[in-house]
Design goal:
Structural class: mainly beta
Helix content: under 10%
Radius of gyration: 28 Å
Distance between the termini: 66 Å
CATH class of the largest domain: Mainly Beta
Largest sheet: 5 strands, antiparallel
Number of strands: 16
Oligomer: single chain
Number of domains: 2
Strand content: 35-45%
CATH architecture of the largest domain: Sandwich
CATH superfamily of the largest domain: Jelly Rolls
Length: about 220
């Protein structure tokens, strides 16, 4: 019986040695609930990570590398970049996100069918929900400028256009660029629509207040 045990132990050692020689992938699964606008750190060395489950796409950072969005069924192989020691999971959304991430050495292939949710980070690549948002302040004071920065607040993704309506009977409004140069004029009793996602400045250069309405059309995360 002792000889059998010794043989079994030797066989087990041989198998482990073969695994090491063949560099069999080694990985562990980590489950995290990343709070809204927060981050979670996984201290685990590896040459790859793979998103097994996720209620939404979030950002992932290997050590101090670039923060990149990854979704279910995806993940980079960093063998050419070397080993990383830490994976930081960053949630940019206004809701909690639950993830299951495989981190390890080598690689993992999941042959089961995975439905990958659509990605809609930053710039929509397909038709997305749009909503009008009226901005407060329907009277622009004399000799004043109001700035619409175009910064999205989740679930907004990106501004599609801005609509400026001038209700004054005689005075014009000016649209300025970042250098305060005039790039458009809103004449009395007219409206203009600007397909601009970035910052927009609206100026009243007169000595009288001007009644106006300004709305923005935003892409929304579905």
């Amino acid at each position: 019986m002792a000889d059998v045990n010794l043989t079994a132990s030797a066989t087990a050692r041989d198998i482990e040695a073969m695994k090491a020689e063949l560099k069999t992938p080694q990985f562990k699964a980590y489950r995290r609930v990343v709070n809204a606008g927060d981050k979670s750190q996984i201290d685990a060395p590896g040459t790859f990570f793979y998103i097994k489950e996720a209620t939404d796409a979030i950002l992932y950072q290997m050590d101090n590398g670039e923060e990149l969005p990854w979704d279910v069924g995806t993940g980079p192989d960093s063998k050419e970049l070397g080993m990383f020691q830490r994976l930081t999971c960053i949630n940019p959304w206004s809701h909690d996100v639950t993830i299951v991430v495989y981190v390890g050495i080598g690689g993992v292939v999941d042959n089961r069918f995975t439905l990958v949710p659509s990605r809609d980070f930053a710039i929509p690549v397909r038709d997305a929900t749009t909503e009008f948002v009226a901005r407060p302040g329907s009277t622009l004071a004399a000799n004043s400028v109001i700035v619409f920065p175009g910064t999205p607040v989740l679930p907004q993704i990106q501004r599609k256009q801005i609509v400026i309506s001038n209700l004054d009977l005689a005075n014009v409004l000016y649209v300025l660029d970042a250098a305060d140069e005039v790039c458009a004029v809103v004449f009395p009793q007219t409206s203009i629509t600007l397909p601009v996602s970035g910052g927009v400045k609206v100026k009243n250069a007169t000595s009288s207040a001007i009644v106006c309405y300004i709305s923005e059309l935003w892409y929304y995360k579905q």
